[in-house]
Amino acid sequence: MAEKEEGKVAAEGGAEAEADEEVEVKFRLFDGSDIGPLRCNAVATTVAALKDRVVADWPKDKTIVPKTANDVKLISGGKILENDKNIAQCRAPFGDLPSTAITMHVVVQPSSAKSKPGELYYFIENKKTNKLPKTTRCSCTIL
């Protein structure tokens, strides 16, 4: 019986340790450079907060600069992270080694570059009626 209680206490202690878990996160930019690593609480820190931090810490010498956190997408483990999730929810199922930093890839997509639904419809309608300007096409053949 004492063994069961010890196991229960150890499990509860593990849950508390996980809730207070500090992780290091670094952000890989499009040109291969990094921001960070930053120390964050895995449960308390959301993806939206990380995006705000990326925008604030963005190097000024880059050609592409996000204006807002909405211009930034974070990718970890091959998945685009959702703003309302925390770091603990975004970790890969096989996990990272505890002593290593979690690397998240940063994609910048400015709001003005995103197409509006009307623009896509306009493009399709014009393509059907051939109102688009003709362009020279390459007729390369790869063998």
Automatic annotation (TrEMBL):
Entry keyword Ribosomal protein: no
GO CC terms in record: plasma membrane
Subcellular location: Cell membrane
Principal place of residence: membrane
InterPro entries: MUB, Ubiquitin-like_domsf, UBL3-like, UBL3-like_ubiquitin_dom
The entry's keywords: Cell membrane, Lipoprotein, Membrane
Database matches in Gene3D superfamilies: Phosphatidylinositol 3-kinase Catalytic Subunit, Chain A, domain 1
Superkingdom as given in the UniProt entry: Eukaryota
Membrane topology value: Lipid-anchor
CDD domains per the UniProt record, alphabetical: Ubl_MUBs_plant
Residue span, UBL3-like ubiquitin domain: 21-141
One Pfam family named in its UniProt record: Rad60-SLD_2
PANTHER family: MEMBRANE-ANCHORED UBIQUITIN-FOLD PROTEIN 4 (PTHR13169:SF1), UBIQUITIN-LIKE PROTEIN 3 HCG-1 PROTEIN (PTHR13169)
Summary of the function given for this chain in its UniProt record: May serve as docking site to facilitate the association of other proteins to the plasma membrane.
Protein name listed in UniProt: Membrane-anchored ubiquitin-fold protein
